Amino acid sequence: MPSYPRTIPSGAASTKEWQGAAQLPASTYEVLVVDDSPVYRMLVEQVLSSEPYSLLFANNGEEALQLFHEREPCIVVSDWMMPDLTGLELCQRIRADATKPYTYVILMTSKRERADIIQGLQAGADDYLTKPFDPKEMLARIGVGHRIIELNRELIAKSQKLEEAARTDPLTGLPNRRAIEEWAPKQLRGAARHGFPFWVIVGDLDCFKAINDTFGHDAGDAVLRQFAEILKKNTRASDICGRLGVDEFLMVLTHVRAENIELTVRKFHQQLAQLSFPFHGKSVHVTASFGVAGFHGKDLLEFSALVRKADQMLYEAKRSGRNLVKVSFP
Questions:
Q1: Which tens digits make up the pLDDT trace of 46-63?
Q2: Of 91, 147, 208, 250, which one is least surrounded by beta carbons within 10 A?
Q3: Which of 213, 247, 299, 311 is an active site residue?
Q4: pTM for the predicted model, two decimal places
């Protein structure tokens, strides 16, 4: 009997309820059944056909591995003894691929000796079923696998949220210093390799402390969020902007010609200057100063060196009267 994938219609329970926050594909609970016996494949299908799982079938270990890599099922139920790969070898191959989401593996076997069971678990199996299996026991053990996979997905989702939070400024929603320092060096190496311009822009709000002291920190936060929105709107998907400190922001722009960079920075410099903030019945205008440092060549610089140079240009802009853009050309 040839192997075939088959989708079993959902039962009363909704698979959407199981998908949780992990944002995984819609086909979330596929079960791969591996057995060279057509009789046992049919028996497993009869047991699971009324359950909310999508079933995939394979005649042997090699077909199972191909389906595993193509479909990434969350549960694999495999016979132990097969003509090509044994269930143990299949399990070891599955465990060797660390790039895949965790798969819950159940071995089916007529072996009942404790040493055999230990061997199967040591090979990476999560559970086992003895043949001939009891249908209720199979459902119960697959249910355990379902719960383990769900817990694993929840942990991954929470970990992803924590990772995202660790790289995001909570006030503005922009990337923070850590995120910028992880992203920018890769782009800088690309600029050196392919020869496109790379610009680091450091912007700082002028007299920001006076806004906090005069109108309160809520007013200061409103200005920071608005400034962040301006920078975000002027940042392409291939570039980045983020918050470095209290009122200091950084942008990385690429593929901008030297003769256009000052005009480009002045565009969002002017957008901020045109805003009016109604604080305590007063119309308040806020300005910012910008320092720009560029790289265009093959002799790779450290990203931190470009940031320091942009900081120097920012200091020049502040010392020259604020509300200015100062550029260090490569």
A1: 998 888 888 999 999 999
A2: 147
A3: 247
A4: 0.63
